[in-house]
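Fig. S4 source data, part A: sequence.
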Amino acid sequence: MPGTGGGRDDVSPDRASVPARVPRSAPARSRTIRLLIAESDPELGRLLVESLEGEYDTRLTANGEEALRVMRDGDIDLVLVEGAHPGIDGLELVRQIRSDPELRDLPVVLLAVSAGGSVDVGIPDGADDYVVEPREVADLRARLTSNLARVRERSADAGWRRAILLALADPLVIFDDQGVVLELNQAFTRLFGYSLDDGPLEPPYPWWPTEDEDPEALQTILDLHTAALRHHEVEADVVFYTKDRRPVWVHSAGANVDLPLAGSSAHIWVLRDITHDKQAQERRAAAAAISAEFASVEDLETLLSIAEHGFEALFDGGSTIQIDLGDRYLFRAGRDIVEAELMAEVAKGLAGSPSADSISYRPGILLVPQTSTIGARAWVQFRWPRRISVEEMIAADLLAQAFGLALDRVVERQRSADKQANLEAAMESHRTVGQAVGILVERHKLLPHQAFDRLKKASQNRNLKLREVAMRVVETGADPEDV
């Protein structure tokens, strides 16, 4: 399965910063074809060079290691390989050519001692053609010519394929039936940091999560990759990792292409970076959950706790809340604090204004309820300065308004409770004063207002509340003056 903090950047400077692999081109018809002959028998090698002289610019090597060095250092168009080569034998040499991204498009003709052995194995291992000894020069020339024609067609196809890959804005990866990556486009390299130069790239791919990073995600990806290799069409959202191990969410969709001439298939996957969408989705869900909690909270202490921890989790920073209830109150880390405890940057943030700047790196984000009747604001200090997305600003604004509404409701509820308590206390006090007046009226045969005047005078003389004097008269039976 192909594979992962950040979004795609398609501006041209970034494109230019990624070195493009220059594919080996087909030989031009206007120059002599450069032929490498890998033949361990000096006499046979000399005869081959002489036989092909004039039509080809030939190079002769005696072993596989030297042949690979010449191919990598020089500009070779065609390779003739002895099947039974010393050191790296011919078949292994073919396999190494096909596994090298810079050499794999070279046409390779295998020299076989007989019609069996090397021929049966050589073609599946990547040789384009073979010539069986003894060989006629005319037959050899014909085989070489036909393979040059094929490589020109193959090179043209590869050129179109690479041009299409470069034109795609979304990352793309192509791998074979064994999972070996055949192609990666520049968009893939820009997003994940990996290129074919990091190869051979085989499962488990380095952009997959490791068992330690996310075992559940890894198992999901393994299942999807297995399904893809079995020619099932698979489409899913998965998490991959960049070269510096930053998680990136991608939507993966692919198709399988049969290669009948090669007897195999290629699996083509296009990836779309959905990290921003995933983060926005998670942020919306978190904001909705916090807003729901705001709507159900009944007391100020719980509201402040929900707001503080919710803001911290949502915007990844430390939260400080300011409320004006006649006096200014500050809350941080689960307790109320004084202004002297504020960091200078936090104090500056609380005193600022919300900004729509999504370009600059900023130290935090300010939440201000615009419709609240209570002066309130919250500042979230980021762990390090960063940009604030428009989507985050919208979430912050909606949460600020939800917090303001909840704050208004809770404070008004508290005020109503205080008013009710005060009213009940007043009624109880009134009953107590009435009882004391009744006692004095009955005991001293006074008029009610005369009895009340005695209570009031005793209250003033002793600097006690009227209710307290009346309560003592009721409880002790003493006259007001003796209380």
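Fig. S4 source data, part B ends here. The domain at 423-482 is CATH 1.10.10.10 (Arc Repressor Mutant, subunit A).
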